[in-house]
Amino acid sequence: MRVVSLMRLGDEETRLREQFPEVTFEFYKHPAELPKETQKEMDVLISYHSAVNAAFIEAAPNLKWIAWYATGVNSLPLDLLQKRGIKLTNGKGVHAQQLSEWLFAYILDDFKQLKAVYNEQKDRQFNGKRMSKTLDNATILFLGTGVIPQRAAQIAKVFGMRTIGLNTSGHSAPHFDETYRLADRQQWYQQADVVVNVLPETKETYHLLALDDFKAMDPETLFINIGRGTVVSTDVLVEALKEKIIRAAYLDVFEVEPLPADSPLYDLDNAYLTSHITGNGADNRVKATQIFKNNFAHFLNNKTLIENVVDLNKGY
């Protein structure tokens, strides 16, 4: 069994070799370092690099499983994996804490007017009369009810927020007061103070949010996108914000990444942008490797995987 990682994993490399001494592990800092012969012979690939495309996979005839260390798998040729019978797992859940912390950093920054407070500081103003909104009894609506929004909804409940979750079927999910069908989303927007997109990119979610979605929201809505940028086009976002159809947006993901320097989003005074960093965490690879270890033990025994298996038909 030959396992190749297209990233260095630090101390986890030694732990993997110790836990699975009968397995050959090879670790490379970049896909360009991978020898062609190794690529042909590898059984398992650990990566989340964009170089893992259709051509790369075609050049790996022995490949049986890709352990993708990111949550989103939309960059992979899923049809080819299905055709080849290659199994795929992802890093679902690894980023839940980091993303949730960033989400509430955005919300608190907005509700507590921290940018305005900082401007008063720079202007040497002491404004003891400033009033701010509270999260208590505010309603937060999530597009998606998976692991990440479940963790965020759990935190929201601590703040006293009402939590609404939208998913494909409207099935219940932990930490949500109410759940409804994503197809019926426009009838629930008006109830939300904060709308958060945490949906993956699939054929069904690409450009899912149209201008009518934003028009269905309350004008005071705060929109946050920490899912996938392609859920809404840049043009729609710009119009919704420029025309004050909604009050403001915090965006970490974009339709095109890196976000072009000439993007009109940079010019909007009610758009606050981060550079797809909300999932970044120093211990992400350790957490993802633990998922890999759990799966690999079963894979060696009976070729089955038990955790974070991606449905190649659905794309998540």
UniProtKB/TrEMBL annotation:
<dbReference type="InterPro" id="IPR036291">
    <property type="entry name" value="NAD(P)-bd_dom_sf"/>
</dbReference>
<comment type="similarity">
    <text>Belongs to the D-isomer specific 2-hydroxyacid dehydrogenase family.</text>
</comment>
<dbReference type="GO" id="GO:0030267">
    <property type="term" value="F:glyoxylate reductase (NADPH) activity"/>
</dbReference>
<dbReference type="Pfam" id="PF00389">
    <property type="entry name" value="2-Hacid_dh"/>
</dbReference>
<keyword id="KW-0520">NAD</keyword>
<protein>
    <submittedName>
        <fullName>2-hydroxyacid dehydrogenase</fullName>
        <ecNumber>1.1.1.79</ecNumber>
    </submittedName>
</protein>
<dbReference type="Pfam" id="PF02826">
    <property type="entry name" value="2-Hacid_dh_C"/>
</dbReference>
<dbReference type="InterPro" id="IPR006139">
    <property type="entry name" value="D-isomer_2_OHA_DH_cat_dom"/>
</dbReference>
<feature type="domain" description="D-isomer specific 2-hydroxyacid dehydrogenase NAD-binding">
    <location>
        <begin position="105"/>
        <end position="277"/>
    </location>
</feature>
<dbReference type="InterPro" id="IPR006140">
    <property type="entry name" value="D-isomer_DH_NAD-bd"/>
</dbReference>
<dbReference type="GO" id="GO:0051287">
    <property type="term" value="F:NAD binding"/>
</dbReference>
<keyword id="KW-0560">Oxidoreductase</keyword>
<feature type="domain" description="D-isomer specific 2-hydroxyacid dehydrogenase catalytic">
    <location>
        <begin position="16"/>
        <end position="309"/>
    </location>
</feature>
